[in-house]
Amino acid sequence: MRAAKITLLIIGSLLLVLFLIYGYYGGFYPVRAEIQQKGGEVLVYQKMTGDYAQSPDVSDKVYNKLLREYNITTTRGFGIYYDHPKTTDKDSLRADVGCILESDFEKVEHLRADFEVKEYPNDNYLVADFPFKGMPSVIFGIMKVYPALNTYVEENGYDPNTPVMEIWDLSNNKIEYRKELVKIQN
Fold it and tell me: Is residue 65 part of a domain?
């Protein structure tokens, strides 16, 4: 009898801890997708092919090179994901991953020697935010935000096969998701 109580107490404590972790990293955050005018950011990045799980390493590589070799500090990383991982072979997935330039715009021409550089187009995007409190937030965001974006585009007649941009905003502790909108022609 005593062993059963201790076992239940341990299981209950573990469930409580998991519940709290899930909530802390955004698991209960309500996702709201809406169309917003966005864009205009200067993106400094590397093209990436392969498993999207390499994105944090590529982003860190760009960030560190900007900091060490160009003395540029950024607080927003990003990934633009072009292919759906369920319909594209892992080795063929394409993305642009790097940092958003927030200052030092006079260095853009010099940056082109080591990076791809472009201005993200101003346009209407399907946008959703999610709290960012560490890598588990990225995982929970993928599990919660992408289905919300996909539901919205399906219900409103947009092409589901358009790129999605994730912006990891460290200073505001959030991840912003932007899905390109292309109406399906009937």
Answer: yes
Q: Which domain holds residue 141?
A: 34-180
* Burial zone of 167 (CB within 10 Å; 0-12 exposed, 13-18 middle, 19+ buried): buried
SS3 assignment, position 87: coil
CATH for 56: 3.20.80.10
Determine if the pTM surpasses 0.85: yes
What does the H/E/C string look like for 98-155? EEEECCCHHHHHHHCCCCEEEECCCEEEEEEEEECCCHHHHHHHHHHHHHHHHHHHHH
Domains in the chain: how many in total? 1
Q: What is the pLDDT of residue 146?
A: 94
Which two tokens mark 166?
């994730």
User: Cα(104)–Cα(156) distance, rounded to whole angstroms?
Assistant: 40
Give the model confidence (pLDDT) of 135-176 as tens digits. Answer: 888 888 989 999 999 999 999 999 999 999 999 999 999 999
Q: What are the tens digits of pLDDT across the range 38-50? A: 999 999 999 999 9
| DSSP bridge partners of 174 | 131, 169
CA distance 136 to 129: 15
Answer whether residue 18 is part of any domain. Answer: no
Q: Name residues whose C-beta falls within 8 Å of residue 171's C-beta, 6 or more positions apart in sequence.
A: 75, 76
For residue 19, tell me if it sits in a domain.
Answer: no
From CA 116, how far away is CA 108, in angstroms rounded? 10
